[in-house]
Amino acid sequence: MRTKLDIAKNWLPRYTGTAIDEFGDYILLTNFQNYVEKFADKFNCEIKGLSKPMQTATNSNGLSIINFGMGSSNAATIMDLLIARKPKGILFLGKCGGLKRSTEIGHFILPIAAIRGEGTSNDYIPKEVPALPSFKLHKFVSEKILARKMEYRTGVIYTTNRRVWEWDTDFKNYLRKLGAIGIDMETATIFVVGYANQIARGALLLVSDLPMIPEGIKTEKMDKAVTAKFVDLHLNLGIEAMTDIGKKGEEIKHFMY
After folding, report:
1. Is there a domain that residue 257 lies in?
2. CA 256 to each of CA 80, 194, 206, 236: distance values in angstroms, whole numbers, following the listed order
3. What is the CA radius of gyration of the chain?
4. Whole-Å CA distances, 99 to 105, 132, 193, 245
5. CA–CA distance, 83 with 4 (Å, rounded to integer)
6. Which residues lie closer than 8 Å to 125 by C-beta, 6 or more apart?
7. Torsional class of 201: left (φ above 0), alpha (ψ -120 to 50), beta (otherwise)
8. Is the pLDDT of residue 220 over 60?
């Protein structure tokens, strides 16, 4: 294997237990196995890769979902491996912590950009280059949210490699200076590696906790409540948006900055 594409073609099936030609043209990415299970139940399709690092399912309309795990390194890995399939678009269905007082648990965020605090993306393009989504893809997601007469938030997401930081007052003061609307561990990486690999990409984030205040830090009880109340809607919005793109056949072009 001499090239990146050679490696991706070999590794994508190895990591997912799924043949390259079994993936759809459009792909949902998630960190959570229950999203894959709900997707498979909805479309009565098989979950593959149960003994692999990443699990997948694909419906009859050519839409796939992949649970790639947690963190920026895993996000970069799946975005690299997907060059073997060359999807027409991917949408990350992630959860994030709300950093603004106007942001509540259960709100949806369509990020206009992400701050590259994770470091992983620095291996792909210079750190001065912004992490941006494919805005045409976000347009489809926005339409699905508005069709349900729901609101959503836009703003900048801060992506970090730190998982346990909620105790750190200095870091929280730093986040306040940045003015970001939310914090997660994957969005900037997905945007940057998608850009580097010429893959159209977007993110629809669900606010699952409010980590800037002690009572808002995620607990097991809180996570179960968020899952029960909002996850089905989160998943369905992603399914509807990506299915609509596929039906309309609109090309989401990749532009260099």
Report:
1. no
2. 18, 12, 29, 31
3. 17
4. 11, 20, 25, 31
5. 9
6. 192, 195, 196
7. beta
8. yes
Q: Cα–Cα distance between 135 and 153 in angstroms, integer?
A: 15
Q: Which residues pair with 65 in a beta bridge?
A: 28, 57
- Between the alpha carbon of residue 82 and those of residues 107, 114, 200, 212, the distances in Å are 29, 21, 11, 35
**Does the pLDDT at position 24 exceed 60?**
yes
Question: Over pLDDT 90: what percentage of the chain?
Answer: 91
Within a domain: 90: yes
CATH of the domain at 8: 3.40.50.1580
Listed residue (160, 78, 158, 168) closest to 120, CA to CA: 160
Note if the pTM is more than 0.90. Answer: yes
**What mean pLDDT comes out for the span 60-88?**
97
In a domain, 150, yes or no: yes
Would residue 255 count as lying in a domain?
A: no
Residue-wise pLDDT tens digits, 147-156: 999 989 999 9
* Domains of the chain: total: 1
Backbone phi and psi for residue 60, each to the nearest 5 degrees, phi listed first: -70, -10
| Cα 79 to chain centroid, rounded | 11
pLDDT digits (tens, 9 = 90+) for 128-175: 999 999 998 999 999 999 999 998 999 999 999 999 999 999 999 999
**pLDDT score of 248:** 67
79 CB contacts (<8 Å, ≥6 apart)?
90, 189, 190, 193, 194, 197, 199, 201
Q: How many CA atoms lie within 13 A of 54 on its CB side?
A: 28
* CB neighbour list of residue 63: distance below 8 Å, 6 or more residues apart: 24, 26, 27, 28, 239, 242, 243, 246
Residue with tokens 């997601």: 141
